[in-house]
């Protein structure tokens, strides 16, 4: 090599070193929250997750959960350190195969890798941990639900940090592999496709599940305990997995009479919402929840929903969430109407379908149910506030807002709006404002006044959607469906989610 070449190489090397040094200096910590006004510490900044591999062991008698979560992510900035949302006791973390230092406080797991991470780089994070989830609380609340024969990792808006580290916000969806080893004779149910069990030499069995489509962290769950697991095939060829706790008592058969109809309900809702967006179907019925939740591909129900017989309305509500909430998720939690208003309206559609009351009859009944001076009318579905995220008004007044849109634009435009929304936003996120803009675009109407009245204005509107003025309205008889719908919305002082 010539002297000139050596000098040129030396100059280039020095420049490269200066560039790397400059990059390292520019690296900054990722934000400890994703920027959601309702939950400032939810999620984290600086990276996007593409996949979680959650491999755990769980002992029901002691509530001890141990194992490893591997996170595959990509950086969105130069990172000197980053946060994960997690409560359990961590023993080690590796970032790109190198041991990383870390600290934990208040549900924030702060990871300090050995080297700064360049923007746009692939990152593999391996977190090993062991702890008792039920021993942890946030603001006095424990989302992990220990049961007589196991546990349920089920809740909204927050459950992930009680059992796996994550970027815990709906705007960072990922695919998932979940496998949990438990003592022989215990069952484990989770999302997506059932990938079988594997016997282990220590008298334990590992249950394996895989979610192939983007999934929000709070919609990822496990139900562990004594279950009857039923596998079948839906008319569209998809696998159906339903599971029923062995502790349902007299609610067992009504629960089965409801949840076993999930493929039928799904097939019906496809007519209004478009093709079902996921790879599997099913449901789980387990005591100790107090609500129903739309875990992706496999909603979970408290058995009390079936205490008066079969209840397909709650199934319609949760299946509707597979489009509104799961496939199309909130951009920020203030957009919750996009989840609950439309899932509640799905109950109206189901009521029409089974001949137990039209959507108009149900809308008028709900409108008349709450007097003008009720606090119900002071909660705004379009921006309810964190304290009222699951208030009855988000559901019931939210459904009235959906019906008001249907009345205003007509059925053809209305169902076009729903299908276009679920297709354009599929596996992504949306805002109330984006939905309003789409509604105006499809209908060709200016709808500000309608949405302002039903979503953003306190007080009871002058009339039910599609009805005469309040002063001339007749008393509306309770539709046949509404007893079941009301039970769906009011259970153990809680709401379906």
UniProtKB/TrEMBL annotation:
Catalytic class of the enzyme: hydrolase
EC number: 3.4.11.2
UniProt domain Peptidase M1 membrane alanine aminopeptidase: residue ranges: 293-454
Cofactor(s), names only, from the UniProt record: Zn(2+)
Coiled-coil zones: none
Position of the signal peptide: 1-26
Entry keyword annotation includes Signal: yes
Pfam families named in the record: Peptidase_M1, Peptidase_M1_N
Entry keyword set: Hydrolase, Metal-binding, Metalloprotease, Protease, Signal, Zinc
Residues of the Aminopeptidase N-like N-terminal domain: 50-219
Catalytic activity: Release of an N-terminal amino acid, Xaa-|-Yaa- from a peptide, amide or arylamide. Xaa is preferably Ala, but may be most amino acids including Pro (slow action). When a terminal hydrophobic residue is followed by a prolyl residue, the two may be released as an intact Xaa-Pro dipeptide
Gene3D superfamilies registered for this protein in UniProt: Neutral Protease Domain 2, tricorn interacting facor f3 domain
UniProt similarity note: Belongs to the peptidase M1 family.
Protein name, per record: Aminopeptidase N
